[in-house]
Design brief:
Blueprint lengths: L1 H17 L10 H26 L3 H37 L5 H29 L5 H31 L18
Helix pairs in contact: 1-2, 1-5, 3-4
């Protein structure tokens, strides 16, 4: 049963990663509400999974949850910058004659973003040392790595499906009804 719940979490994750409100304002308000609810459900299931897998006490679980939320808030803008930088780099490389200086600058930005993410991860781990045992920290890191790999795989799969889908046809408005002349 636990495995089924975990699989359900992974199936729902692409909807969460497909639209992050900060990425674009393109999502309809209803979609944003649904995505928010899905994020909360995944967050709840992740917390349950980690608590069970690591054998956390109530105190440890509360501290871990607070740590995860605080450091994830730090990661989000870095990831957004990384996505923007990657898009700009891809666009520059796809142009007829890429600007060498611009490519160099974008590659430097990518490296800076990667270093910033690594620093956030180190800071988070350092905080966890205060309330998790070394074994719990190692298991946590492994569970998070697996989860991130699964999410990345599902996102790649979903993007591939979108590329293969035919473009939606424009919706035609029905012709207005004409009333018979009396």
């Amino acid at each position: 049963m636990k495995r089924l719940a975990w699989i359900l979490v992974l199936v729902v994750t692409p909807a969460l990663t497909a639209q992050v409100p900060e990425d674009s304002g393109a999502a309809a308000p209803g979609d944003q509400v649904e995505a928010g609810q899905l994020r909360q459900e995944i967050r709840r299931r992740w917390t349950e999974h980690v608590r069970t897998t690591l054998g956390l006490s109530d105190e440890q679980a509360g501290k871990l949850d607070a740590t995860e939320q605080r450091f994830e808030a730090q990661r989000q803008p870095i990831r957004a910058r990384q996505r923007q930088t990657r898009q700009a780099l891809n666009a520059e490389l796809a142009s007829g004659a890429p600007n060498q200086d611009h490519v160099r600058e974008l590659m430097s930005q990518q490296q800076q973003n990667q270093q910033a993410l690594q620093q956030v991860n180190r800071d988070e781990d350092r905080e966890m040392q205060g309330y998790l045992t070394p074994v719990q920290r190692a298991r946590y890191q492994e569970e998070r790595r697996r989860f991130q790999e699964r999410v990345a795989e599902l996102v790649r799969h979903r993007r591939e499906e979108r590329r293969q889908m035919p473009a939606p046809r424009p919706r035609l408005r029905p012709a207005p009804r004409r009333r018979p002349n009396p």
